[in-house]
Amino acid sequence: MKRDVLADRLKGYACLLVLFGHVLSGVRTAGIPTPAFFVGIERFLWSFHVDLFMFLSGYVFRITGGAAAKGSRLRFVGEKAINLGLPYILFSALYIAVNALTPGVNNPAALSDILRIGYAPIAQYWFIYALFWLFLLWAVLSRFLQYAVVTAILYVFFIVCRVCSIDLGFLYAAFGSVLAFGIGTCLPALKPQKLPLFVRIGSVLLHIAIFYLFSRLGIADVLFADDFLTLFGIFAAVCFISLLENCRPIAAFLDLVCRYAFPTYLLHTFFTAATRIALLRLGVTVYAVHLAAGTAVGLAGSLAIGWLAARSPYLNLVFYPTRSLRALRKAR
Question: Which DSSP state fits 114?
């Protein structure tokens, strides 16, 4: 089927937000004096940017035919286990090893932590772990129920667990993303262009205003208020990119980031952390320098490796296992 160009550009946008969010948090937790404005920006991004990724994953799941697209639900789950599991294990182990062996990192680790990744995701790789469980839940439950019903049941279950302080353990991250992913599965198409221009512009400004208000009132993380911010943030992001994609250079840039979004998501913290450590060892503590250098190197380094890997199915195996295997079989 024809690709949804807006969804691709939203994916590139979400990837940029995640990278920038990690630069912000990394610089702050390294002890570099951080302006209050950027602390607010960091909190604002974390209120919706990873959920935007989850929403897009659910949306693409829907428009590509759902769990039945591979011919059987078992095959669908099997391919997801390979395509998400291999990068998850490989890069989680690499992240732990680097943090265990490198002095000066913000999140020191022990090599024994590798044994825990089956139930204790680390760093940004929790997203991949949670995404697999969401695919599994939807593959099983959508056999009997409509997507909207699956979303409602799982969300209510999650809310009950939160209210009753029931520990969901290794499934907490997945259930915490049920609403964003589920809303994505319920949409047959993304067509914000049908909305009046003032609605799309207004939603972006209103999102910022509501977040500021909720933060001032101290309710940004309160039950239901946090989910409202998440959903409004996703809606505002869709409207925002529908406005920006009319600018050809921006659209081309987002397309480029989207093309290598998965390698960027997996790799960017290695580059941002290395940049931060190198600058600190050189005695550089200027916040703006750390912010600019971390973002630039994190993106450029990740894109470069994604581009190189795409040149060879052998290299690309670590990012896209089944796709690369099919390319290798076809080349024989």
Answer: G
